[in-house]
Design brief:
seven-stranded mixed β-sheet; three-stranded antiparallel β-sheet; alpha+beta; 39% strand
């Protein structure tokens, strides 16, 4: 037997994405094999990007309503985030270029993948591909704001980099992917800290 043997997969919901209940056997460190049950939410994989302007020492972020945060204590439900989206059938680079244009109005071609991470591995299958890209005002081709038919209502924000870092400390930025990319920018000195 492998260390993990899937016995049964049951679909609990496929309303928005897919929620599965998985029954499996797993060999533990002591050699015993135990039957376990877990639920896993499959929403596909995604990509996220931090846009930064070296000349202005600023970052481009978005703000939008996130229902799960609202029902878990975020009074307004609004979350400040890096641009992000699901891959759908695109590769990560094409996805993030498309999402960047739709959400922020910036058209970027030179994106750099910096790492990938499972964001909530205890319950969600998604792996997220993280990118950074330098931007200039000349790359802004529209207002952004998202896609109307997807009911997106996104506010584009340009913030001084030092302010964005401070907003992590104050709790104004609570989104994990955004915190990770801002800290990546700080560690790798993509922008200056005053």
């Amino acid at each position: 037997m492998n260390d993990v043997n899937i016995i049964n997969t049951e679909i609990l919901s496929d309303n928005w994405y897919t929620l599965k209940k998985i029954t499996y056997e797993m060999r533990h460190n002591d050699g015993s094999v135990r039957l376990q049950h877990r639920e896993a939410y499959d929403r596909g994989n995604g990509a996220t990007i931090l846009l930064y302007n070296k000349q202005l020492q600023s970052v481009i972020l978005t703000q939008q309503f996130r229902l799960p945060t609202y029902i878990n204590g975020n009074e307004t439900g609004l979350l400040i985030e890096c641009c992000a989206g699901l891959l759908d059938k695109d590769n990560p680079e094409d996805c993030i270029r498309r999402e960047t244009e739709e959400e922020t109005g910036y058209q970027v071609n030179d994106v750099k993948k910096v790492f990938e991470a499972y964001m909530s591995p205890g319950s969600v299958t998604e792996i997220l591909y993280f990118f950074v890209a330098e931007c200039t005002p000349a790359m802004k081709i529209s207002e952004g704001g998202g896609i109307e038919e997807e009911s997106e209502n996104i506010r584009v924000m340009e913030l001084p980099f030092t302010n964005a870092l401070e907003m992590i400390k104050t709790g104004e930025i609570k989104d994990a992917k955004t915190i990770m990319l801002l800290q990546y920018a700080q560690i790798n000195q993509l922008l200056e800290i005053y």
